[in-house]
Design brief:
Mean pLDDT: 93
Largest sheet: 8 strands, mixed
Order of helices and strands: EEHHEEEHEHEE
Strand content: 25-35%
Distance between the termini: 21 Å
Number of helices: 4
Number of strands: 8
Helix content: 25-40%
Strand order of the largest sheet: 1-2-3-4-5-6-8-7
Structural class: alpha+beta
Amino acid sequence: MIECGKHEFIIIQDDATGPEITTLIGLHLAAVQADTAAEFRFALGLDALRAPDVTLWSLWEGRALLGCAALKDLGAGEGEVKSMRTHPDHLRRGVAAALLSHLITQAKARRWHRLNLETGTSPSFAPAHALYRRFGFVDCGPYADYIESPHNHFMTLALDARG
């Protein structure tokens, strides 16, 4: 149980099969599609979120799904934040911050030394950029198989896996 202001949230590891999470991932993919050219979209669909190197979590308040986020294991002690999405009905309630805090804790527990992310550059991504910066992420160049483009923004966070 996570308390965030007046709210009590629960975060669970999700298998990406329930109707609520499949709907939220659909909303996520539609938003990415609306804001990013096809060749620069890297959002994970349901099948990719079920891959063995990806762990998905969902955040709930009672029976309402408020958001989701995933970690992808990149190997060599690095991971990637994937599929961060707050349901549009629950924005500005601390959902994304709670999920990002959970992801960082999980990455440290896995003894990773670096957590990366790729996001878009359109104005709709500004709140996400601000959130990531608030948690200590800094701009970086492409990592893994990504390439530089004006449509993709890359960030990284060095982790102290001991704490």
